């Protein structure tokens, strides 16, 4: 059934209408976005340039950085424009595009985190078979599968959202075109669409969480059986960064999407959305670099090469 949408554009109400907060928030979001760009693109460059990081773990991490860069870039620049020049209008098609890109990248991250948990399971529980388990082909298929799931999820949920009719309010109580915030504006019956959103997102989240949970159950069993304290510490440290990223990501996503849009508090959702759409992409490179000696050594090596090149030039 074809929708009868009269709305041609949406108005993003943003984080606040207080003029005194616009400039401080613009500065904060600009700094966060710059750190996100430097952190994630820097991580990708480090992994590509240092042969010691050409392993499955860092292959997945490079794609995680790419995804974080992608979904931060789908949201943050529009937020900055709204805060700085008051540009809060977004066209119908641009809203759909932003929603689609964000859904793709967020879903890909979901499955990448599950793939990384399986990789850690193979490294800790089956170290002698790790090279034959996590082959280049297996890693490539896991990453490609993550992107395919991302596009499928986005196509289903965004297509379902924009099949609804929008003929009344076009005021989005959010700072970007998130699915629940746009869906609640529909003037047609959205009950089925809400159920589709909850069921599809639930499947994606719980499938990934089951993989992560099972992987870590086996990892912790293996770690507890290790006789050497050094081995115990090493195994635990390899999983700490991933566990931190998993906790941050899934905590906010479950809070946001596993409830009907009618029960959403828009102000609360905005705060949660700032965290997972803007802050998490900034935090992930820090989590993986600050707790990782290999990344630190690669960074020092790259900086050393750059300094040597500068000295040689002069």
Spatial order of the strands forming the largest sheet:
2-1-3
Strand content: under 5%
Give the biggest beta sheet: 3 strands, mixed
Number of strands: 3
Instruction: Give the CA-based shape.
Output: globular
Could you say which structural class the secondary elements and strand pairing correspond to?
Answer: mainly alpha
Counting DSSP H or I runs of 4 or more residues, the number of helices is 10
Distance between the termini: 69 Å
Task: Give the % helix.
Answer: over 70%
Give Rg in angstroms. Answer: 21 Å
The whole-number mean of residue pLDDT values reads 84
Task: Enumerate the spans where pLDDT stays under 50 for 5 or more consecutive residues.
Answer: none
Describe the structure.
The chain is mainly alpha-helical and 314 residues long. 76% of the residues lie in helices and 3% in strands. The chain is built from 10 helices and 3 strands. It has helices spanning 19-49, 56-84, 92-125, 130-133, 136-161, 179-183, 191-224, 229-257, 266-290, 293-313, and strands spanning 9-12, 89-91, 171-172. A 3-stranded mixed beta sheet has the order 2-1-3. Helix 1 packs antiparallel against helix 2 (56-84), helix 3 (92-125) packs parallel to helix 7 (191-224) and helix 5 (136-161) packs antiparallel against helix 7. The mean pLDDT is 84.
Map the helices and strands.
Layout: E1 9-12, H1 19-49, H2 56-84, E2 89-91, H3 92-125, H4 130-133, H5 136-161, E3 171-172, H6 179-183, H7 191-224, H8 229-257, H9 266-290, H10 293-313
Parallel strand pairs: 1-3
Antiparallel strand pairs: 1-2
């Amino acid at each position: 059934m074809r929708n009868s949408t009269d709305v041609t554009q949406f108005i993003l109400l943003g984080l606040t209408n207080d003029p005194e907060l616009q400039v401080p928030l613009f500065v904060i979001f600009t700094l966060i976005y710059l750190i996100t760009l430097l952190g994630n693109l820097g991580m990708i460059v480090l992994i590509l340039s240092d042969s010691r990081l050409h392993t499955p773990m860092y292959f997945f991490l490079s794609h995680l950085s790419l995804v974080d860069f992608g979904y931060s870039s789908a949201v943050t620049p529009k937020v900055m424009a709204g805060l700085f020049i008051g540009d809060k209008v977004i066209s119908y098609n641009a809203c759909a595009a932003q929603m689609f890109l964000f859904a793709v990248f967020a879903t890909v991250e979901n499955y990448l985190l599950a793939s990384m948990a399986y990789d850690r399971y193979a490294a800790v529980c089956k170290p002698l078979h790790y090279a034959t388990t996590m082959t280049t082909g297996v890693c490539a298929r896991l990453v490609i599968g993550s992107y395919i799931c991302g596009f499928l999820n986005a196509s289903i949920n965004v297509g379902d959202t924009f099949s609804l009719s929008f003929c009344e309010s076009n005021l989005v109580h959010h700072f970007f075109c998130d699915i629940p915030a746009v869906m609640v504006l529909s003037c047609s019956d959205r009950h089925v669409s809400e159920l589709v959103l909850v069921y599809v997102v639930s499947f994606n989240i719980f499938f990934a969480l089951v993989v992560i949970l099972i992987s870590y159950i086996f990892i912790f069993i293996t770690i507890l059986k290790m006789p050497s304290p050094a081995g115990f510490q090493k195994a635990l440290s390899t999983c700490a960064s991933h566990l931190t990223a998993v906790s941050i990501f899934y905590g906010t996503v479950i809070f946001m999407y596993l409830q009907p849009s009618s029960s959403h508090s828009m102000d609360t959702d905005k705060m949660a959305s700032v965290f997972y759409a803007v802050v998490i992409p900034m935090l992930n490179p820090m989590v993986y670099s600050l707790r990782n000696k290999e990344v630190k050594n690669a960074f020092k090596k790259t900086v050393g090469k750059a300094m040597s090149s500068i000295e040689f030039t002069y």
